[in-house]
């Protein structure tokens, strides 16, 4: 994992980059988030940042007291997003990372929120940049940490419904940064995830960015190297989410 300062730096850099990109793609399709156009993605991120600022500032241990904000006029939305990003960063920066708060998975503290916001913002910054027609990149170290968060948090708690139990194990191996994970199915729909070099029924290999984007269903399976049982790989990627 990166440290809290690293995640806050990512949130600032990627949050500003998201705004700069989406500003030129308000009416353009966001292919990785169909059927959204740029302004839909902008409103989504404005809401996400506002929600988590509320959780951190109020030290809420459940979200029942949250009151969604009203959507601003389209012409005001970018300004509201930038203001909300600043407010979220200020809230996270001024709160002890170990302080308890509600989260929907795993550890219930502000550090979890900081990491989640850094990664969600980075992936959506990639979406927004792609919508402008430009090449989009995610830093390899950040992407490797994003894979770790994905398999330990998202895969465990936010997988797609109805996909059933995996029929085999999956080894994920980054080729440009240190990062290996083994995902082993159990008799239930759960999986066991470990960080290790081990043989799985299939292996997914590639750059950290390509692997992360494949997990988030931003790029096709053909973007990474699949070794072993391709059916297991396909089944595994079909279980992942594309929020």
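Sequence proposed for the structure above (243 residues):
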């Amino acid at each position: 994992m990166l440290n809290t300062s690293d995640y806050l730096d990512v949130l600032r850099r990627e949050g500003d980059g998201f705004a700069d990109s989406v500003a030129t793609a308000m009416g353009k399709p966001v292919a990785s988030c169909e059927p959204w156009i740029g302004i839909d993605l902008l409103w989504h991120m404005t809401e996400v940042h506002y929600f988590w600022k509320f959780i951190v500032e109020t030290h809420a241990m459940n979200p029942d007291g949250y009151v969604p904000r009203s959507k601003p006029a389209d012409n005001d939305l970018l300004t509201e997003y930038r203001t909300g990003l600043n407010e979220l960063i200020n809230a996270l920066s001024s709160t002890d990372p170990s302080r308890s708060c509600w989260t929907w998975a795993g550890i219930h503290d502000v550090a979890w929120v900081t990491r989640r916001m850094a990664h969600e913002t980075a992936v959506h910054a990639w979406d927004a940049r792609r919508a402008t027609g430009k090449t989009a990149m995610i830093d390899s170290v950040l992407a490797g940490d994003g894979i770790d968060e994905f398999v330990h948090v998202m895969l465990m708690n936010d997988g797609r419904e109805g996909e059933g139990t995996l029929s085999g194990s999956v080894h994920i191996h980054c080729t440009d940064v240190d990062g290996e994970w083994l995902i082993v199915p159990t008799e239930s729909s759960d999986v066991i995830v470990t960080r290790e070099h081990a043989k799985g029924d299939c292996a997914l290999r590639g750059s950290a960015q390509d692997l992360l984007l494949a997990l988030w269903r931003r790029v096709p399976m053909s973007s990474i190297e699949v070794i072993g049982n391709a059916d297991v790989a396909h089944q595994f990627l079909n279980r992942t989410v594309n929020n």
